[in-house]
């Protein structure tokens, strides 16, 4: 029973572990990476341009001041947002290029606030961020237009809404972990930054505007698994916008568009919609591949078709693998469920066999009691003693009738009736049968074995039978086996041990139920079973306790 229960426990534990559990980033490593990324971003943005009106030696100092606080953005996102808003105002007043980095990291901190905190904390981060963004946009001596107000509010509000969205419907996916989304967003930002940073200070627009544009395009990939169609449309719109206003970022946004196409193909199995996305992406790609001069060649068209078809093919392949993996997980869970059901059925079957044997033993003793009471009734004179003996006889007959009815229900018509015989004879017969099969059996039976109850002796006989069968199955003919049965001090001891097999044998398939059945028998009587390798062979030891019979005089 213990082996069966432990097997069920292992199977159920594997089933629980097989369910998808969101992986969370713990420790200080993510904080260090965030801080290092913030510092590196500012060095990329300000390394060539310098510190503006401030001395150039302040470039690394400003890089640390703006990037290092990102180490606390996971734990104190509101505080980091307020700090970056203040730093944005300061660097904007002294005309330091670090203000571009502060503007970008401020949006990141606001997005983290929306994801990690409630609406009130998000509002506390958005309002100062909007004010600082508005002052950063405003040029001295220039009126603040309506468009500037829209940008001032929209730039910090967008990451806040994205953070709130990721906080809410993240459970809609079958796999609710956000790590793939974070990796997609990080990869998108990396592609956007590395693909455009040499042109940040050569464009007509301010550097932070271009950086914000490409960073938003990269961050959009973070929700591509959850809203693949929406992200594709967003990337397509950004590609059109970059082609008109930010030509330096067109190639980079095109790469992000192709990534969104691949994610769409992976998440959406419909070939109709994949074809529609392919046509739309091909049209958008023509703006980049064909070029604005209007020259169309077969090479450009073929290149365009291949470029768009590649992410769709990769996405469909990944989607098919994902579907196959999900089907395999379902199959494994079903197999585990069937295995658990089979183990429990085997337990019930073993208990049923034990129950039948107990009924046989009880019937044997009750039958003997009835015969003795009947014989004593004829020898005893009439009177109370004779009446009591007659009552015992009649009650015994009724018990036997009830037991026969129960046995008709419980006993398998094709079952083995060997346990109705004396257990000592069953052990001897089993040993002789194994000797005929080729085992070298040394049988040692304690003469005091008959003092143990019949239930314990019957269970010991079954254990010996199963133990010898296992030796023949796994060790093979020619193996020396010692079988010992001893009784004393209220315990019946059973030992089946074999030496090293005479020849090397291939492991035979085993259901594993033999040992479980023996444990079930031992546990039913309050006993213990131990089994394991022993000097190249195998040793099975069972202890079956039984109450001592008090001898009265």
TrEMBL record:
Enzyme class at the top of the EC tree:
transferase
TM ranges are 57-74, 104-127, 147-166, 178-200, 206-224, 245-265, 271-290, 302-319
Q: Where is the Signal transduction histidine kinase subgroup 3 dimerisation and phosphoacceptor domain?
A: 350-413
What residue stretches are annotated with the Histidine kinase/HSP90-like ATPase domain? 460-547
**Record's keyword terms, sorted:** ATP-binding, Kinase, Membrane, Nucleotide-binding, Phosphoprotein, Transferase, Transmembrane, Transmembrane helix, Two-component regulatory system
Which EC numbers does the record give? 2.7.13.3
- Catalysis: reaction(s): ATP + protein L-histidine = ADP + protein N-phospho-L-histidine
**One Pfam family this chain carries?**
HATPase_c
Name of the featured protein: histidine kinase
Q: What is the originating organism of this protein? A: Nonomuraea recticatena
| Lineage, broadest ranks | Bacteria, Bacillati, Actinomycetota, Actinomycetes, Streptosporangiales
């Amino acid at each position: 029973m213990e082996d069966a229960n432990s097997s069920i426990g292992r199977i159920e534990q594997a089933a629980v572990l097989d369910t998808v559990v969101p992986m969370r980033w713990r420790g200080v490593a993510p904080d260090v990476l965030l801080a290092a990324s913030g510092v590196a971003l500012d060095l990329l943005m300000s390394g060539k341009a310098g510190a503006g009106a401030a001395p150039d030696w302040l470039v690394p100092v400003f890089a640390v001041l703006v990037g290092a606080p990102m180490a606390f953005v996971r734990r104190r996102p509101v505080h980091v947002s307020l700090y970056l808003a203040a730093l944005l105002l300061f660097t904007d007043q002294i005309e330091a290029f670090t203000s571009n980095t502060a503007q970008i990291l401020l949006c990141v901190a606001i997005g983290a606030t929306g994801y990690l905190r409630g609406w009130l904390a998000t509002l506390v981060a958005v309002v100062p961020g909007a004010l600082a963004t508005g002052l950063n946009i405003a040029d001295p001596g220039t009126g603040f237009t309506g468009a500037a107000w829209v940008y001032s509010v929209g730039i910090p509000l967008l990451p806040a809404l994205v953070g709130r969205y990721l906080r809410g419907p993240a459970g809609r996916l079958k796999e609710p972990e956000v790590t793939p989304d974070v990796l997609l967003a990080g990869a998108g930002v990396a592609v956007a930054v590395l693909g455009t940073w040499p042109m940040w200070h050569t464009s007509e627009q301010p550097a932070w505007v271009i950086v914000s544009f490409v960073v938003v395009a990269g961050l959009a990939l973070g929700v591509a698994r959850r809203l693949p169609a929406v992200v594709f449309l967003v990337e397509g719109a950004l590609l059109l916008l970059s082609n008109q206003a930010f030509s330096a970022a067109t190639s980079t946004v095109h790469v992000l568009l192709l990534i969104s196409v691949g994610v769409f193909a992976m998440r959406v199995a419909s070939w109709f919609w994949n074809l529609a996305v392919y046509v739309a992406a091909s049209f958008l790609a023509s703006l980049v591949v064909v070029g604005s001069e209007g020259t169309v060649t077969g090479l450009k068209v073929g290149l365009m078709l291949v470029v768009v078809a590649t992410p769709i093919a990769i996405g469909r392949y990944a989607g098919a693998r994902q579907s196959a993996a999900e089907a395999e997980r379902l199959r494994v869970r079903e197999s585990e469920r069937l295995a658990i059901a089979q183990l429990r059925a085997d337990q019930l079957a073993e208990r049923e066999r034990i129950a039948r044997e107990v009924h046989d033993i009880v019937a044997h003793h009750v039958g003997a009691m009835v015969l003795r009471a009947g014989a004593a009734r004829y020898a005893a004179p009439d009177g109370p003693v004779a009446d009591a003996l007659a009552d015992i006889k009649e009650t015994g007959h009724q018990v036997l009738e009830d037991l026969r009815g129960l046995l008709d229900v419980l006993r398998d018509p094709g079952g083995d009736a060997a346990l109705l015989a004396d257990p000592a004879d069953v052990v001897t017969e089993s040993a002789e049968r194994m000797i005929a099969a080729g085992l070298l059996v040394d049988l040692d039976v304690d003469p005091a074995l008959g003092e143990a109850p019949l239930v314990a002796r019957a269970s010991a006989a079954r254990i010996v039978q199963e133990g010898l069968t296992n030796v023949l199955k796994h060790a093979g003919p020619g193996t020396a086996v010692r079988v010992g049965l001893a009784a004393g001090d209220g315990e019946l001891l059973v030992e089946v041990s074999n030496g090293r097999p005479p020849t090397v044998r291939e492991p035979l398939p085993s259901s594993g139920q033999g040992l479980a059945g023996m444990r079930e028998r031992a546990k039913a009587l309050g006993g213990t079973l131990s089994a394991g390798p022993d000097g190249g062979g195998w040793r099975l030891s069972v202890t079956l306790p039984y109450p001592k019979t008090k001898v009265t005089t």
